[in-house]
Amino acid sequence: MASPVTVSVDAMGGDNAPNVVIEGTRLALEADPDLRVLLCGSEEVIAPLCQDTDRCIAVPTTQVISMAEHPAEAVRKKKDSSIVRGCTLVREGEAQGFFSAGSTGACLTAATLIMGRAKGVKRPALGVIIPAYDRPVFLMDVGANADCKADYLAQFAQMGTIYMQSVLGVDAPRVGLLNIGEEDTKGSSFALEAYAALKAHVPGFAGNCEGGDLVAGAFDVVVTDGFTGNICLKTIEGTSKLIFKHLKGALTSSLSAKMGALLVKGSLSELKAELDPDRYGGSPLLGVKGTCIVGHGSSNAQAIKNGILAGCAQVREGVSQKVAEAFAPLKPAAEGE
Amino acid sequence: MASPVTVSVDAMGGDNAPNVVIEGTRLALEADPDLRVLLCGSEEVIAPLCQDTDRCIAVPTTQVISMAEHPAEAVRKKKDSSIVRGCTLVREGEAQGFFSAGSTGACLTAATLIMGRAKGVKRPALGVIIPAYDRPVFLMDVGANADCKADYLAQFAQMGTIYMQSVLGVDAPRVGLLNIGEEDTKGSSFALEAYAALKAHVPGFAGNCEGGDLVAGAFDVVVTDGFTGNICLKTIEGTSKLIFKHLKGALTSSLSAKMGALLVKGSLSELKAELDPDRYGGSPLLGVKGTCIVGHGSSNAQAIKNGILAGCAQVREGVSQKVAEAFAPLKPAAEGE
Question: Mind giving me the DSSP string for B119-158?
Answer without folding.
Answer: TT-S--EEEEEEE-SSSEEEEE-SSS-SS--HHHHHHHHH
